């Protein structure tokens, strides 16, 4: 996707890998050009299911959804993490990210959000010796 350079994409994937290295939680980033659902939250829920994020052992997957052309952002977490952090955490994370987006720093905004989410996952779901990476760390580019 032209909004992110190869370097940007590498930095984002690296942020996901680093965040996940400290937790049993899983973070996925989905980027669409255009929103094909009624809302960004609907898109996030659809991708959460499509990418089988609900199948993590501890129910601690987090999905960040971004529609670049429509300027829509949603963050959702499975019940394991959501019951620990609640709605205010997701809203706060979005606001941090949007502050960077407004300055035209899309990649940095995503990285800051990923780091913030990773910190909370580490707090509630610290990495254990037997943890495995249950989901890919790459960016999922939607077809819309």
TrEMBL record:
<dbReference type="InterPro" id="IPR007621">
    <property type="entry name" value="TPM_dom"/>
</dbReference>
<dbReference type="Pfam" id="PF04536">
    <property type="entry name" value="TPM_phosphatase"/>
</dbReference>
<feature type="domain" description="TPM">
    <location>
        <begin position="2"/>
        <end position="119"/>
    </location>
</feature>
<protein>
    <submittedName>
        <fullName>TPM domain-containing protein</fullName>
    </submittedName>
</protein>
């Amino acid at each position: 996707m032209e909004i992110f350079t190869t370097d940007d994409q590498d930095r984002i994937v690296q942020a996901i890998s680093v965040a996940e290295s400290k937790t049993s939680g899983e973070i996925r980033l989905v980027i669409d050009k255009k929103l094909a659902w009624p809302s960004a939250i609907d898109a996030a829920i659809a991708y959460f299911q499509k990418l089988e994020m609900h199948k993590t052992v501890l129910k601690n997957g987090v999905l960040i959804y971004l529609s670049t052309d429509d300027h829509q952002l949603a963050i959702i977490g499975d019940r394991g993490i959501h019951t620990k952090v609640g709605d205010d955490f997701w809203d706060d994370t979005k606001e941090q990210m949007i502050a960077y987006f407004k300055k035209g720093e899309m990649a940095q905004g995503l990285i800051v959000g990923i780091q913030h989410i990773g910190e909370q996952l580490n707090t509630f779901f610290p990495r254990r010796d037997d943890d495995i990476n249950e989901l890919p760390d790459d960016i999922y580019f939607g077809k819309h």
